[in-house]
Amino acid sequence: MRRYTAAGLLVAGMGAQATAGASGSGSLALASDYVWRGSSQTGGDPAVQAGVRLSARNGLYASVWGSNVALTPDVGARSEFDAALGWSGDLTPAWGLDGSVVRYVYPATGRALDWTELSATATYRQRAWLQLAHSRDALAGGDAGTYTQIGGRLPLGADTRLEAVYGRYWLASAQARNYQHVQVSLIRAMAERWELRVTGHATDGAARTLFPGNAGGRLELALQASF
After folding, report:
1. How far is the C-alpha of 183 from the C-alpha of 37, rounded, in Å?
2. What's the pLDDT score for residue 155?
3. Helix (H, G, I), strand (E, B) or coil at 98
4. What is d(CA 48, CA 217) in angstroms, rounded to the nearest whole number?
C-alpha cells in the first residue's frame, strides 16, 4: 500500500475541492477520555479534539482531525492527526455510502507509528450503518488487520438520541488475538450547534490483554460543537 503523509493528503484533497466548488465544516470537542475501538488513547485522561472538512458538490472530501494522546506503553506520542480523502453520497433515497483512505499520524515520535487504512461505511436512512476497514499495517504493527462495525441510532425525541455500536477487530495472530467491543451513547442537543454525549464502553478479555489498563469498561463524557 502506498504511503501518504498528512500534508500530502490534505493538499491533494484541497486541490480537488477547489476545482469542484467546496464547502467547509468543522468540529471542536472536550472529552473526559479518548476511546478508539474500545481502548483509551489518553490513559483515561481528558482530550481536546478538533477537525475540519472540505466537501465538494460531487461528493469528494478531504479532512483532518486531531487529538492529544498518551499511548501505553509511552512511545513519545503526544498528539494524533487523522488525514482522510474520500467520497460520500447517496446511492438510493435510503442508502448512503462513504469510502475513504485514512492516514493516522503521530508527529515528533521518532518511531514508525504512522499507518494507513482503507474504510467504507454503508448507511441506511441515517438510522443504521455498517463499516468495513482494512490495513496491511494495522495499528502500525506490521501485519494486516480488518475492522468491522455495526451501529444503530434511535431518536428519543426532538433533541435526544440513543446510539449503539458493536465492533470486531480481526488481527494477525502474530500481532494479537481478535477482539470485540461495544459502546452505547446517549446524545443530547444542547443548542443549535452543541451536543453533550455520554458513552459507556466495554470490551472482551482479548482487548484487555492487548491494551492493558486501557480496555474494558469505562465511561466517556464529551461536549462537542459543530460549525
Report:
1. 9
2. 97
3. strand
4. 22
Residue 35 near residue 220, CB atoms below 8 Å = yes
Which of 51, 17, 45 is closest to 32 using CA atoms? 45
pTM: 0.89
Mean pLDDT, consecutive 10-residue stretches, the chain (227 aa), reads: 45 49 93 98 97 97 98 90 98 98 91 93 97 96 96 96 98 88 97 95 96 96 97
C-alpha cell read off for 75:
512511545
pLDDT of residue 108: 81
Inter-residue long-range contacts of 208-215, CB under 8 Å, 24+ positions, other chains counted: 209/176, 209/177, 210/39, 210/176, 210/177, 210/179, 211/38, 211/39, 211/40, 211/72, 212/72, 213/43, 213/72, 214/39, 214/40, 214/41, 214/43, 214/44, 214/72, 215/38, 215/39, 215/40, 215/179, 215/181
Q: What pLDDT score was predicted for residue 8?
A: 52
Grid coordinates given for 2: 502506498
Name every residue whose Cβ is closer than 8 Å to that of residue 147 and which is 6 or more positions away in sequence: 37, 131, 132, 133, 134, 138, 167, 168, 169, 170
